[in-house]
Amino acid sequence: MPSEKALALVLRTTDWSETSRIATLWTREFGKVRALAKGGRRLKSAFESALDLLTLCRIVFVRKSSGSLDLLTEAQVTERFPRLRQDLPALYAAYYVAELLSDWTQEYDPHPTLFDEAVGTLRELGSPEVATGPRAARFEMVLLRELGYSPALDECASCGGQLADAEAVFSPAAGGLLCSACAAKARDGITMSAAARAALGALGEPGEGWQQALTESVRGEIRKVLSRYVTYLLGHRPRLLPYLGS
Predict the structure, then answer these.
(1) In the chain, fewer beta carbons within 10 Å around the N or the C end?
(2) What percent of the chain has pLDDT over 90?
(3) Which residues of 155-182 are buried (b: 16+ CB within 10 A; e: fewer)?
(4) What is the DSSP string of 176-240?
């Protein structure tokens, strides 16, 4: 079988045998790939430290038939993100990014925009000028959009009606904000202020609007909404979510 080349982010590794390991990789060209790295556990292997968690590397692999693991033949480090090791909240946020990509995406379903956003997030987390909470929230909004789950923020997610200018109610089950009539029937409603609604919308827009300064209260509202929404869509609470600040 012919070899494939890709730029990949290491999301997870598990031991396979005394000498080999299985790597879960998020690639720009192919989406999620699970591959067997023979000899990957040896101290002096062909992969060296390229399979460390949250490492960006260039890989060569052989695609196997459906249901079988691909075979990783080469991996060379392209970039590491050293600031993550110096900032615990940033490291937790980075682990959260890896968890969502690993658990939520499908194999061989590429999303180049999501790949670029993930790498951009890891590069910026831990920077003094970048707030960890909003940067993680920005990644979540891009992921939701790329996977087809963008929340409805401009009209009622249930009936399509107009939303009030003041505070509104977000329903994870409905997939967005609700008008007053629909909100009265919702059992999972989360009240959002007008400021939090506007900030959440800016987080998902192209450009640098997500970098706006937000009050602690608004950041808390956004974290509550995104945490509930992501948990609802996944069907379980992400393991790193309790460690994620606003």
Answers:
(1) N
(2) 78
(3) ebbbeeeebeeeebbbbbebbbbbbeeb
(4) EEE-HHHHTT-SS-EEE-HHHHHHHHHHTSSSSGGGS---HHHHHHHHHHHHHHHHHHHTS--TT
What per-residue confidence (pLDDT) applies to 245? 83
CA-wise closest residue to 164 among 154, 152, 150, 172: 154
SS3 85: helix
- Residue 29 has what DSSP assignment? T
Q: How many helices (H) and strands (E) does the chain have?
A: 6, 8
- Tell me the pTM: 0.93
Task: Please state the rounded mean pLDDT for residues 46-74.
Answer: 86
Domains in the chain, CATH or no CATH each: 3-79 (2.40.50.140), 83-243 (1.20.1440.120)
Q: Lowest mean pLDDT of 1-10, 39-48, 202-211, 219-228, name the range.
A: 39-48
* Bridge partner list, 59: 6, 75
